[in-house]
Amino acid sequence: MDADGIDLRHHGDAEAADGLVDFAVNVRAGTPPAWLAERIRRSLEDLAAYPDPREARRAVAARHGRPPREVLLTAGAAEAFVLLARALRPRRAVVVHPQFTEPEAALRAAGHAVDRVILDGDFTFDPTRVPADADLVVIGNPTNPTSVLHPAADIAALTRPGRTVVVDEAFMDCVPGEGESLAAARLPGLVVLRSLTKTWGLAGLRAGYLLAEPSLVAALAEAQPLWAVSTPALVAVAACCEPAALAEADAWAREMSAERDRFAAELARRGLTPVPGARASFLCVHAVDARELRERLRAAGFAVRRGDTFPGLGPQWLRIAVRDRATDDALLEALDDLRR
After folding, report:
1. CATH entry, 12-30+245-339, from 3.90.1150.10, 1.25.40.10, 3.40.50.2300, 3.40.50.300
2. Facing residues of 210 across strands?
3. Is residue 257 over pLDDT 60?
4. Sheet holding 21-23, edge to edge
5. Which end of the chain is more exposed for a tag (fewer CB within 10 A), N or C?
6. Pairwise CA distance, residues 201 & 32, whole Å
């Protein structure tokens, strides 16, 4: 709990429960795909040996056109936030909100004071709002929970010697072509975090990585426990960097994007106002009766994510994951029933 009484450790999995149709967790349904699950199963034959990250590191480096020394494999993106909070000593840390709350929670847990830049309106980002003396800036792109995709140039404009800029790109593979990604950019102090959780359905495996300058990667590796990433997770990371996997992810992103836009229009017709220009696999929607509506949907068998645990949002906001058309239509029908 932060000083404002906001529970920064509240996440979508707390909303889901057995028997509820899950629109609260932003993990792609029906995953991992069979080919990936089989690769992970085969990796269990090697559990007697300590994990060897070299192949996975090379695969990530090749995917993003960087040398392996600029890659750190992590137990999901969440571990990366903890490592950054432990290894860095910022004089002024700034987190751009609304966004995933774990970066701020990790910084506070490590004893750092945190300032917030709160975006409002359509939640677009203006880099001039970040204080000039901030030496650590954290921003999501596309941002959880707003689903807004910021121009890469606006985030790159934050970088300068003596400042660390952390970009959480956990949902970037939801964007066809990943046009605003900074994963291949080699800018001073830039740290890019990626996750396999969302697109590949590997939340329980804990697989992710970060990209940064070699000196920072080395410092973070020193703060990381030995063998932090398991052999099955390493196998998954390497597999998901293969060309066929990247093509599969991009095809899914295109299909999901079309369904998301349809779903957003249908929600708007029912009095829920999505943040415009959504680009990730979820919608952030405003509704005057959001708190009551969430409880009524829960009673009807559907879980959606409350918005008031994100700094910068409040009780009139909900986050709703995008599923397949039939599942999305079931939620729309439930809304129709509740509105009658």
Report:
1. 3.90.1150.10
2. 72, 193
3. yes
4. 21-23, 302-306, 317-321, 282-286, 273-274
5. C
6. 5
